[in-house]
Amino acid sequence: MVLTDDPVVAAKLRARRNLCFGAKERFRHEDRGWNYRMTNLQAAMGCAQLERIEQFLSRKLDMAARYNEGLLNLPLKLPHVEPWAKTSVWMYAAVLEDSVPFDAIEFAGRLMVLGVQTRPFFMGMHEQPVYQNMGFFQDDRFQVLSASISVGFICPAARLSHMSRSNRSFPVCAIPLPDKDNPI
Question: How many angstroms separate the CA atoms of 62 and 21, rounded?
């Protein structure tokens, strides 16, 4: 579901969600489009969730604040939000500092033993086989992104945001990273 107050954007999105069929010739595609039409049930669910959006955002912001507080003194690069920006905290992602002697895959394995599930960063578009096979990104270099993928991880978010505040410390308490008292 997309919301906009721009009629031009709205018209483009309506066309794209319906395969970009032409206005005069139905099966003539004027642009790339997709079959993203919603059922009435999906639209009703989206509208009902929009009525609670402030509650959802508040939970996610609370979750991010708990992570920020719990992870602050560990060798991690934590998410940064500019003062002028507003985030929905779709996910909470962090990056292992250079001083950590292992990558995000090993880190995830160590956490899984403790019952905490994380996942590595998503693969960059420039590394996706489908786009490489199509000849895209042949000469492009995304050094910062490529370096971050191997050391970046995503913390549990959905379940954490629905847990009671007293039960939310498990991911933060379980993260075993080197520090002066625990060199790993």
Answer: 43
The phi, psi pair for 3, rounded to 5°, reads -115, 135
> How many CB atoms within 10 Å of residue 116?
18
Residue 89 φ/ψ region, left for φ over 0, alpha for ψ in the -120 to 50 degree band, beta for the rest = left
Cα separation of 9 and 161, whole Å? 32
Contact between residue 96 and residue 76 where contact means Cβ atoms under 8 Å apart: yes
pLDDT digits (tens, 9 = 90+) for 56-101: 889 889 888 888 888 888 889 999 999 999 888 888 999 999 988 8
Secondary structure E strands in the chain: 76-77, 92-96, 119-120, 152-155
Do residues 176 and 115 lie in contact, with contact meaning Cβ atoms separated by under 8 Å? no
Q: Which amino acid is at 52?
A: R
1.20.1250.20, 3.40.50.300, 3.30.70.120, 3.90.1150.10: CATH of 53-174: 3.90.1150.10
Neighbours of 109 (CB within 10 A): 11
